[in-house]
Predict the 3D structure of the following.
Amino acid sequence: MQITTEKPIPTYPSEQLERHADVGSATPISFRGYTAESLLRAYHTAGPVFETEINGVAEIILAGMDANEQAWRSPDDWSYHHAVAVFREELSKVHLTQLDGAPHRRKRRLLNKGFKNSSVMSGMEATAREIAEGLEAMVGTEVELHEALMKVFTRAQAASSVKVDLDDEAIERMVDFEEGFIGALFMTPEERELVYNRAAYVGKKEVVLNQLHSIVKARLEGATGDDLFDGVIHQKTSEAVEPLSEEELIYDAYLMLIAGTGNTSKLLCYLVDTLARNPSWTAELRAEIGEFDPTRMARGMQEFPLLKATLMETERLFPAAPVLPRVPARDIEFLGYPLATGTHCLHQVALMHYDETIYEDPFTFQPRRWLEHDYPKAAHGTFGGGSHVCLGMNVTRVQMPLAIASLLSGYDFEVTQAPRMENYAYPGEVDSQTLRINVKLSKRS
Ligand code: HEM
């Protein structure tokens, strides 16, 4: 599209944005190092498109419901190839996230077999079993819940999605690789290079990718897993659609086994901490869940309205990825403003979660609001939207209720160390940050 507007993009002084670490923000979620409160003020002052400096780099900020709607409606306006090049550089040029246009559509269509709701639900029983066993193993000792849940979810995927026997060491290595990779995604290119070149990370990444490759090779040579991965590999397609190659399947196995476990765990950790501080709501939830039987979730969340509302509120209050990098693929007009090809943009996809014109008293945990109101889709950005909407959303929305229902039904819990961002433990090397929270579980009598 030719740019027909000359409407100047307003500038917002970066000194007026508050650093998240320096002020007492009402939410633990940092918007690339800044507070949601200060970005909201900027949005209400300057409008949905403005220029500022974020972490020393000039950026165009896109914010608000109109921005969400327009960005999600027009995926081909944006170059994921440029915006999230790190997925290509660190994983592969065939990796889903950084594809655009027809190659992206082809891959989403082929992966749908492994991620659509009916597929994910078919693995629910196995997922529930792994979650139950994982929680039981935590009883009695103080555990760091974020990493512990990542391991549980990786095991659950290995029991449902890509069925494979993994020992504790293999699971730990996958979690370490994922945390190392994701933790450095949005660092400066220089810092990222240091992280991705550290010996411990490089070694783990190599072993994980080799392991995924052996799974793929075995499947291509005829081994069957009777799982979702088989469904993805052997699906019937029209001749116009090229089947997934051996190289692609390695990164698709990564998606089905490892990806996203950190984000799911992060939301749950913040929820566990929040429930510990809201005993009366926790008691109501426990009454609804009763003695938990996962088969009651086989057809969805109808029997668990309070739990469903709790999880919607968790998605709203603790969006794990609230800011997404965007780069126009060509000169475009965005909400009346001209954006030239290649301009660095930051889409504040979850900023409206904290806007009091939409969510009353937005910084407080009020799950009941979801029972009393319908909120606009564009005000909920936790999983992004449009054709690049989170591929794992259905996985997360099965794992989260199963984990919380099993936890509340079977265990009492105490938060022994509050949630905090800490360096990932690679002693002596450049490090990325991850969430930590310590809890102690005991059996409910
Ligand atoms: C609470 C958990 C999760 C959150 C908050 C989350 C959030 C997001 C967000 C915000 C996006 C960006 C969408 C966009 O660019 O517009 C995304 C994309 C993606 N997510 Fe998730 N995610 C979660 C769990 C998962 C899981 C479990 C997986 C497992 C496969 C996953 C895989 C992906 C992939 C592959 C993409 C890229 C999709 C594409 O470009 O087509 N995510 N996610």
Q: What stands out?
A: The chain has a mean pLDDT of 95. Residues 96-97, 108, 255, 259-260, 263-264, 267, 320-321, 324, 382-385, 388-392, 395-396 surround protoporphyrin IX containing FE (CB under 6 Å). The longest strand covers residues 411-423.
